[in-house]
C-alpha cells in the first residue's frame, strides 16, 4: 500500500481539519461562562478546568466533522478514495471528541440535573446537524446562524450553568457580543472561500445571497457586537465596557480585506479570529475588573 503524504489530502489532512487555531474561540466562550458563574457564587477551580477541556473537545469535534458533507461532492468529481477515507477518519476522531466531552458533561448532569442535560442534548444535536445529512445546516446557508447559538450562546450559558449559575436575562445578554463575533468568524471563512464554494456548488450563506450582501452582514454583525456592549453598559451590567474599545484596531485589517481580490483574501479569516480573540479577552477583563475604566 502506497503512503499518502498529508499535503496530498489538502484541507482534509488531520491537522488542517482539526483547525487548532479555532480553539481560543472555545476557551474564550467557556471563560466568559466561568466568569459569569463566578459573579453569582463560588466555583470549584477543578470544575472550571473541566469546563474548559470540555469546550475545546466540543470545538475539536465540530471542526473534525465539518467536512463530512464533502464526501458526496468528492464522489461526484470521481476523486480517489484517499480524501474520502481521510474525511471518514476525521469524522471518527470527531465523534470520539464528542464522547469525551459527553463524559465530562455527565459529571455536570449529575451535579446540576436534567436542565443541564437538555442544554447538552441541544448542543450535540446542533453540532451533528451542522454538516451531517440529512440536516446539513452548513449547506443550507444556515451555518452563520447556527454557530451563533451552538458555539456562542449555548457554549457560554452552558459553561455558566455547569458551574451552578442560574439562567437570567442578564446572563443571556452577556452571551450575545462574543456570540455575534463567532458568527462573524464563520462568515469570514465563507467570504474568503466564496469563489471556490460557488464553483463547487456549496450552498453557504455567502453563496446563496451573494458576496456584497454577505459583506453587509459582516459589517452588521461587527457593529451589533459593540452596540450590545454599549447596551450592557447602559443597563449597568458591564461597567468595564470601555475596555472593549481597545479591540477596535483589530477590526481594521479584516475590514480592509473584504474588498480584496479572491487571491488576496486569504488572511481575512485569521484577521477576524484575532479580532474575536482580542474582543473576547477584553470582554473577560471587563467582567472581572473591579476598577473598570468606565468609572
TrEMBL record:
The signal peptide annotation in the UniProt record is none
Q: What is this protein called?
A: 1,4-dihydroxy-2-naphthoate octaprenyltransferase
Instruction: Give the metabolic or biological pathway.
Output: Quinol/quinone metabolism; menaquinone biosynthesis
UniProt topology in membrane:
Multi-pass membrane protein
PANTHER family, sorted: 1,4-DIHYDROXY-2-NAPHTHOATE OCTAPRENYLTRANSFERASE, UBIA PRENYLTRANSFERASE DOMAIN-CONTAINING PROTEIN 1
Q: Which organism is it from?
A: Marinobacterium sediminicola
- Please tell me whether the keyword Membrane is annotated for this protein: yes
Task: Give the primary localization class.
Answer: membrane
Q: Which InterPro entries match?
A: UbiA_prenyltransferase (IPR000537), UbiA_sf (IPR044878), UBIAD1 (IPR026046)
Identify the keywords attached in UniProt to this record, alphabetized: Cell membrane, Membrane, Menaquinone biosynthesis, Transferase, Transmembrane, Transmembrane helix
Keyword Secreted on entry:
no
State the CDD domains in the record: PT_UbiA_UBIAD1
Please, which domain of life does this record's source organism belong to? Bacteria
Q: List all membrane-crossing ranges.
A: 21-42, 48-69, 90-110, 116-135, 142-163, 169-189, 217-235, 271-288
| Localization in the cell | Membrane
